[in-house]
Write a structure and sequence with these properties.
Number of helices: 11
Distance between the termini: 27 Å
Radius of gyration: 40 Å
Largest sheet: 4 strands, antiparallel
Strand content: 15-25%
Strand order of the largest sheet: 3-6-8-9
Length: 445
């Protein structure tokens, strides 16, 4: 059987004459890590976290505001000077103070001196950046996983397609022989129908396999960030179809602490702990410094309100303490604390889930590793049996039924072998996903 050196991947929407891009598995992953749309989203999330850290720092930095205003006193308020104010018998006086126009110009600086809740909140700046960075890493790991799985499915589906086409060619030759013998009167028409049934079965399998291949191709393109109508070619398929290359022994061990999931959960626990302390610290009073400098202008004409300005300045302290807020602060603290406790429990739960995934993938991996060689030997043996029975059939020593049985056994052995390859690769990817070595897998390709 000829090894498959390359796979031409075409879709129904392919553009005629478009140049085909060639990708190895590593090149496919590298392309996806650059062009998948989620890459830019998670990159922006990381950059956004950096800006949010700057935003959080501003709560404890000086805050400077400048304001200006102009009042047109359409009617000045009246002040009453009681009768007798300036001596016995003096009547009540009604006086209006001020001018028609007055302008105000103020610059104020506010600087927190003590705000325990704000200081606690500042501790979340770096963990927030770390969390965004880790989610970006996790997205990259998911891309490595999805691209690798789609890539292997394409290789296996194409191999199955090639084997089915070979089987169909052999069966069509057998059909021709059966028809010739029927014409010569040495074979029955039922023999022709038996061969035709096998060909029809292969046609059905070909339809299913072509559909699986197209689905895998489209999945690969999507995860790589390629347009659906793009034509691509895989250029390292022989490497993954050679059973000799799969005889390597890989030492896998489970350590949840080196996975991105663990780092994400730990960072989330840190953030929830800070949030809990921040809620608790909101009960403390705050103290701030302010400095204000400004000028006022007055006049019965608009220009006069800006021509003559009288400056003023103030420096002071501002103390605030919300002693009672209707149990809101206490409730916020308890809610945040429950979130913190749940996060610690979820960390242990996820570790158990990840360990189970790792163990199940390990069973599949070592089972597939052990069956690849056996299935390859069995496929070669089935081919030898088929070739022998085929020769005997041509010489009249074996019946067509014997030949069809040998053909079916050969097809099943081929299918088992190819399926064991796919099981092996997917189990390895699952193992690496569970123990956090997907990026290492990509780097070592």
């Amino acid at each position: 059987m000829k090894p498959v050196l390359s796979i031409l991947l075409l879709t129904a929407l392919a553009v005629t004459g478009r140049a085909q891009e060639q990708f190895s598995l590593k090149e496919s992953i590298a392309y996806g890590l650059q062009h998948n749309r989620t890459v830019s989203i998670y990159k922006n999330n990381r950059l956004q976290a950096v800006q949010k850290a700057r935003q959080a720092a501003s709560t404890y930095l000086p805050n400077v505001n400048i304001s200006a205003g102009l009042d047109d006193n359409l009617k000045l308020p009246v002040t009453i000077i009681p009768a007798g104010t300036f001596g016995p018998g003096t009547p009540e006086q009604r006086v209006s103070f001020g001018t028609k126009f007055n302008s105000t110009h103020v610059a104020q600086l506010d600087q927190p001196i003590f705000d325990k809740a704000a200081l606690t909140g500042l501790k979340a700046r770096q963990p927030n950046i770390d969390y965004a960075t880790l989610t970006e890493t996790q997205n990259n790991e998911n891309l490595v996983y999805n691209i690798a799985v789609a890539y292997f499915r394409i290789i296996v589906a194409q191999k199955q397609l090639d084997l089915l086409l070979d089987n169909k060619t052999r069966m069509e030759k057998n059909l021709g022989i059966a028809q010739l013998r029927a014409q010569q009167g040495v074979a029955k028409k039922i023999d022709i129908k038996q061969v035709q049934v096998n060909i029809n079965n292969i046609e059905s399998q070909l339809s299913v396999t072509r559909n699986s291949l197209e689905l895998a191709i489209n999945t690969l393109k999507f995860n790589m960030g390629l347009a659906i109508d793009e034509n691509i070619q895989l250029n390292d398929t022989a490497r993954w179809l050679s059973p000799e290359d799969k005889a390597k022994k890989t030492d896998f061990s489970f350590d949840y602490k080196r996975t991105t999931d663990y780092a994400l959960d730990q960072t989330q626990i840190t953030l929830l702990d800070i949030n809990s302390k921040n809620s608790k610290d909101s009960r403390y009073p705050t103290l701030g410094l302010y400095a204000r400098y400004g000028a006022n202008g007055f006049g019965n004409k608009l220009g006069d309100a800006y021509e003559r300005l009288f400056d003023f300045g103030t420096v002071g302290l501002k103390f605030q303490w919300n002693i009672f807020a209707g149990f809101r602060k206490d409730a916020n603290y308890k809610i945040a604390n429950y979130d913190f406790e749940n996060a610690k429990t979820n960390l242990l739960l996820k570790e158990d889930q990840q360990r189970l995934t790792f163990q199940n993938a390990g069973l599949s991996y070592f089972r597939a590793e052990n069956t690849i060689t056996n299935n390859k030997e069995n496929m070669d043996l089935a081919k030898e049996v088929y070739d022998n029975v085929s020769l005997q059939n041509r010489e009249g020593l074996a019946s067509l039924t014997d030949l069809l049985n040998a053909e079916n056994s050969y097809q099943q052995a081929q299918s088992n072998y190819v399926q064991s390859l796919l099981d092996y690769y997917i189990a390895e990817i699952e193992l690496r996903r569970a123990n956090g070595t997907l990026i290492e897998f990509y780097n070592n390709l």
